[in-house]
Amino acid sequence: MTEQIVPYPIIWDAKLTRGGDWHQTILLREDDGVTPINTTGYSMTMKILKSHPNGEVYDTLNTANGRIVNTTSSGQFVINLTAAEIDAYDFTSAVRRIVYDDGAGNTTPFAIGDVRVV
After folding, report:
1. Strands (DSSP E) along 1-118, which ranges?
2. How is residue 29 annotated by DSSP?
3. Could you tell me which of 51, 43, 35 has the C-alpha nearest to residue 98?
4. Closest CA to 103 of 81, 70, 79
């Protein structure tokens, strides 16, 4: 099945440094921009790809494999990469796509951007 290509509201690049851990926090808020969304039942996935839109997948981080942690009461997702994971990457440039699912099957594109490993 081919993924549907949809626009991403945020362009968000990432720089990963070999020999160090990397973490990124994403906060989901209500339309008022202040109130956190209760993300109980939500999941998030970040794919690192050779190219957009459907290039070879280098890595998949998500809430199911524990590499993205969801704090439901604050609408917070923390993406975690260890130094060993970054050091194992055999690319210097890739693309990442972040999407979240509200638990009812509604998948929403969150961000897309370049990933550089230095």
Report:
1. 10-11, 14-16, 22-27, 43-49, 57-62, 68-71, 76-81, 93-101, 107-117
2. B
3. 43
4. 70
Give this prediction's pTM.
Answer: 0.89
Extract the tokens encoding 111: 């961000």
Task: Count other C-beta atoms under 10 Å from residue 57's C-beta.
Answer: 12
How far apart are alpha carbons 89 and 36 in whole angstroms?
Answer: 34
Question: Alpha-carbon distance 118 to 116, whole Å?
Answer: 6
Neighbour tally for 111: CB within 10 Å? 18
Digit-coded pLDDT (tens) for 57-116: 999 999 999 999 999 999 999 999 999 999 999 999 999 999 999 999 899 999 999 999
Reported for 29-37, long-range contacts at CB under 8 A and 24+ positions apart, including other chains, are: 29/75, 36/73, 36/74, 36/75, 36/76, 37/75
